[in-house]
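Quick note —
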Amino acid sequence: MTLGENLLPKFDGLKANGGNRFTFDDPTGHWTITAEVETRDLLGCRLSSLTVRRRTPRRDTRAWAESIVQRTHSLSEPLVLLEFDAQRDEALIRSERPTVRLGERGHFELRLREGSLAHLMRYTAPLDATAKRRPTTFDLTHDALAKLVDDLTTE
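Predicted structure written out below.
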């Protein structure tokens, strides 16, 4: 079983509504997954964030970022590597194009740090260019969540 497939049965114990901080340790001992789950049901969940942390850092954060961009298709928007800071060993990945819906634009943002941490959030902002963005929730089916976890943690 993949890490994502191992993760799904652990969701059964979560409350259906209300904030749940869910942490799952990979049985192989390589990864810790943390999800801020707002709601869940039989088909999926609404998250405010998803974090994967590798217990031993990768050697190349840029290569990790590029591989994530190439293989991640479980989100509603394709991703693009926007920025890489070699000195800080950080990468910024965002939605290739924001989605415009109900007078707002929204995008995913994935930050990679030091070859061991990936933190995913979604942001929205009014179409007015001067308006500030704000964090928001995002919905994933259970299958999409499992695939996303696998995409972020595949070696």
